[in-house]
Amino acid sequence: MTTATALPADAGTAPRPAAGAALRRARPDEAPALARLLAAAFADDALMLWAFPDPDHRARVMPAFFRVQLDQCLAHQGVTVATDDAGALLGALLFLPPGTWEDPGGADDDAVRALTEAVDADLSGESAERLAAIVRLQHRRHPRHRRHYYLAFIGVHPDARAAGTAEALVSAVLAEVDAAGQAAYAETSSSGGARLCENHGFTRFGEVIALPGGGPRLAPVWRGPR
């Protein structure tokens, strides 16, 4: 299973790919740097602000939170990164290939335990309840009618948001999805993420996921095989 999956309000929704960006699979040794990058990318995301309302607590927890997500997706070869000409990391797209969400393996069980250990040790009761609500509602609404790729997170360093990095990452991963003749699913937590998905052929998949207590709304989106 995955937790708190969403596309951020990333300004990198430019209609062109990032000039000079190189795209490749992430290496396991890059996980610490990528966790810090994703924490910075999601620092102002509505879902993260709701899940971790205290700023100091959020700053402590988010790198560990994303490290667990990275380790889970890395175990399935599901992290594509964009780098600049000097090799510096600009952004990452985390995904799970078909069969891994529907039938999680041992690595996924380990990821859930690691998330509990990494986050619950420094988690207020309120945040614990909110994370549980996110997971429960996402699990309830996740499509089960056919196998698909699950685009879990896309994060771009704030300094690279205007360069089309997010556009390039999504295009690269969807090229793999199309080559495999598969569908793709995501949940967007912002207007920027919604536009990014719409530009790549995603359409709304049922009603929005409304989080309790006036929390943000997640919009499930689906893209059929091409």
SSE blueprint and pairings:
Blueprint: E1 22-25, H1 31-41, H2 46-51, H3 55-74, E2 79-83, E3 89-96, H4 106-120, H5 125-141, E4 148-156, H6 165-179, E5 183-188, H7 191-199, E6 203-204, E7 209-210, E8 217-223
Parallel strand pairs: 4-5
Antiparallel strand pairs: 1-2, 2-3, 3-4, 5-8, 6-8, 7-8
Helix pairs in contact: 1-3, 3-4
How would you describe this structure in keywords?
226 residues, alpha+beta, Aminopeptidase, 19% strand
Question: How is this structure best described in words?
Answer:
The protein is globular and about 40 Å long. Mean pLDDT is 83; it is low at 1-5 and 9-17. It has 226 residues and is of the alpha+beta class. Strands 1, 2, 3, 4, 5, 6, 7 and 8 form an 8-stranded mixed beta sheet that branches. It has a single domain, classed as Gcn5-related N-acetyltransferase (GNAT) (Aminopeptidase, 3-Layer(aba) Sandwich). 41% of the residues lie in helices and 19% in strands. The two termini are 26 Å apart.
CATH topology annotation: Aminopeptidase
- The CATH architecture classification is 3-Layer(aba) Sandwich
Radius of gyration: 16 Å
Largest sheet report: 8 strands, mixed
Write a brief structural summary:
This protein is an alpha+beta fold and 226 residues long. Helices cover 41% and strands 19% of the residues. The chain has one domain (22-223): Gcn5-related N-acetyltransferase (GNAT) (Aminopeptidase).
